């Protein structure tokens, strides 16, 4: 019987991933095009207003500096939005029960939601890059660094989105997560400035923000320079992901808020 | 042969509330079983434990020998549950939902013929490409049933499947479910419509305040608890003491007696004659599950409302 075959045990999580991908792709105008436009508006306005005022790295124009930060910020925000909004919507609508009734394990559930979030993040990031490269002089100098940070960053935020989606019971609680955690952390992470331009106290504070390492490391892949060593950043981001993934798996395994 | 569902000493408390107080129940493979009870009796809690949506405080449930907690993958593979709430995923159409649902259970394109059969059987074939959001309430209910069947489970549980569903759909749905039962699927349903349970199910369990208060074949229950109902119009009289125990109801001079066998008619009538009470009118009715339900659970079901 096909039930016990290797193929069918793989098909369960694959189906859930496919469903999660289709869910955002069906409304790509809202989930992909909109964040790309938003990022380009930031780029247009900030580069126009600040290009001649802000000095970041030697030999790097402010507009070029801005692009990787904006890409990474969008990657992170969209990875978070994908898993969190999918979960809160299916919880509020009640259709999460269709997944809870299946033999999918907590690990398979996690992997499907994680990869959907990563892919949404990467698609949005790639979209911004593809549009911005026509206007801004920007080159990837270390592809693997760019890829590693985009992957780990979206994985970290996708996981965080799963936690938020499981925890929140209502849309306003989810909005609080977005507005009071994700937005401040991403805006205060050095997307729009190098933290070396900050007073020492704020520099120290920025170093407690995990978003700072993701953006700084990602930017390193473009310019070959950053505020801290990319290896330190990579370790911090990787370790944060592992910790959050462990917490998420524990929540899912215990059935926290999903199975009474 | 392992039982389709085996429930052993299941308790469940929510805070201070004891929703289930030690339920034991065995449902054999191939049965068409009804679980009845008023709201709050614990039917849905029991089904949620079976489905793995709620954990029992004590006791265990197995599906064809697989424990729903420790061997949940095998147990769920064998189980199709139709949830009570009319839930749907607004992003997809009916066929997509059914394919996804089968896919979660590891079934791929080889399952498509079965999906077509479900769509046909539940009258959804012409709605296969309609988005779930755009379906009427009745159609959504059908889609919900279809989703539970998508992986062709041998044990099917329907939690209040016909609440708010029109007569035509109910008949169509039951025809299809009866067909599945004939093909060997075990069917368990909870319902408020007692006449449905009476016509469809071979065995009935009745729950009250977290316990099973009756469990027998439908025929036995009908015989045992209220074989016949004798309605006598007597006017305002005082009944002889020896037949008071048979009295179930008294309203406007009409007395309803529950008789377990026909010889009791003679007892009632002779006692009345001895007390010189005149019978103005007489009616003899077959009992239905509603009467059993009334006498056991002590409240009327909502089937007539």
Automatic annotation (TrEMBL), chain A:
The chain crosses the membrane at residues 21-45, 65-88, 109-136, 142-168, 180-202, 228-249. PANTHER family: INNER MEMBRANE TRANSPORT PERMEASE YADH-RELATED, TRANSPORT PERMEASE PROTEIN. It is found in: Cell inner membrane; Membrane. Residues 26-252 form the ABC transmembrane type-2 domain. It is a multi-pass membrane protein. One of its GO terms (molecular function) is ABC-type transporter activity. InterPro entries: ABC-2_transport_permease, ABC2_TM, ABC2_TM_bact-type, ABC_2_transport. It comes from the Bacteria. Belongs to the ABC-2 integral membrane protein family. It holds the Pfam family ABC2_membrane. It comes from Methylotenera versatilis (strain 301). Keywords: Cell membrane, Membrane, Transmembrane, Transmembrane helix, Transport. This is Transport permease protein. One of its GO terms (cellular component) is ATP-binding cassette (ABC) transporter complex.
């Amino acid at each position: 019987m096909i039930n016990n075959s290797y193929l069918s045990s793989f098909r369960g999580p694959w189906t859930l991933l496919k469903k999660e991908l289709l869910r955002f792709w069906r409304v790509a105008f809202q989930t992909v095009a909109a964040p790309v436009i938003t990022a380009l508006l930031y780029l247009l306005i900030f580069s126009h207003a600040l290009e001649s005022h802000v000095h970041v790295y030697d030999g790097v124009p402010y507009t070029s500096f801005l692009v990787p930060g904006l890409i990474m910020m969008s990657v992170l925000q969209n990875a978070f939005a994908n898993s969190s909004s999918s979960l809160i919507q299916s919880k509020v609508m009640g259709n999460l029960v269709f997944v809870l009734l299946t033999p999918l394990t907590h690990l398979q559930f996690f992997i499907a939601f994680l990869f959907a979030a990563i892919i949404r993040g990467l698609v949005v990031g790639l979209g911004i890059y593809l549009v911005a490269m026509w206007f801004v002089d920007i080159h990837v100098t270390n592809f693997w660094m760019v890829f590693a940070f985009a992957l780990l960053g979206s994985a970290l935020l996708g996981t965080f989105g799963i936690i938020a989606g499981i925890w929140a019971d209502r849309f306003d609680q989810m909005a609080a997560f977005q507005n009071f955690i994700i937005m401040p952390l991403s805006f205060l992470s050095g997307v729009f400035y190098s933290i070396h331009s900050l007073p020492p106290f704020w520099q120290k504070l920025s170093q407690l923000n995990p978003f700072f390492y993701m953006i700084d490391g990602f930017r390193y892949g473009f310019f070959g320079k950053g505020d801290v060593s990319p290896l330190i950043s990579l370790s911090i981001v990787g370790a944060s992901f592992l910790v959050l993934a462990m917490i998420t798996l524990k929540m899912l395994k215990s059935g926290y808020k999903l199975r009474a | 042969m392992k039982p389709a569902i085996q429930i052993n000493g299941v308790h469940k408390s929510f805070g201070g509330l004891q929703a289930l107080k030690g339920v034991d129940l065995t449902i054999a493979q191939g049965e068409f079983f009804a679980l009845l009870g008023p709201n709050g009796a614990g039917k849905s809690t029991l089904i949620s434990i079976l489905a793995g949506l709620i954990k029992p405080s004590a006791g265990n449930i197995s599906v064809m020998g697989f424990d729903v907690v420790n061997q949940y993958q095998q147990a769920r593979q064998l189980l199709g549950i139709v949830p009570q709430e009319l839930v749907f995923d607004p992003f997809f159409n009916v066929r997509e939902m059914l394919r996804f649902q089968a896919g979660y259970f590891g079934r791929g394109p080889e399952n498509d013929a079965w999906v077509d059969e479900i769509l046909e059987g539940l009258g959804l074939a012409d709605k296969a490409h309609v988005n779930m959001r755009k379906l009427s309430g009745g159609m959504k209910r059908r889609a919900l049933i279809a989703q539970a069947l998508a992986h062709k489970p041998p044990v099917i549980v329907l939690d209040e499947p016909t609440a708010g569903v029109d007569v035509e759909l109910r008949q169509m749905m039951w025809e299809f479910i009866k067909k599945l039962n004939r093909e060997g699927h075990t069917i368990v349903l909870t319902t408020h419509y007692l006449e449905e349970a009476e016509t469809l199910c071979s065995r009935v369990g009745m729950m009250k305040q977290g316990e099973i208060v009756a469990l027998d074949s439908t025929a036995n229950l009908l015989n045992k608890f209220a074989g016949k109902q004798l309605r006598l119009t007597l006017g305002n009289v005082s009944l002889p003491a020896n037949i008071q125990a048979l009295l179930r109801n008294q309203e406007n001079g009409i007395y309803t007696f529950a008789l377990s066998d026909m010889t009791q008619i003679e007892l009632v009538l002779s006692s009345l004659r001895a007390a010189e009470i005149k019978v103005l009118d007489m009616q003899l009715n077959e009992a239905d599950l509603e009467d059993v339900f009334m006498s056991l659970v002590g409240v009327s079901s909502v089937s007539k409302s």
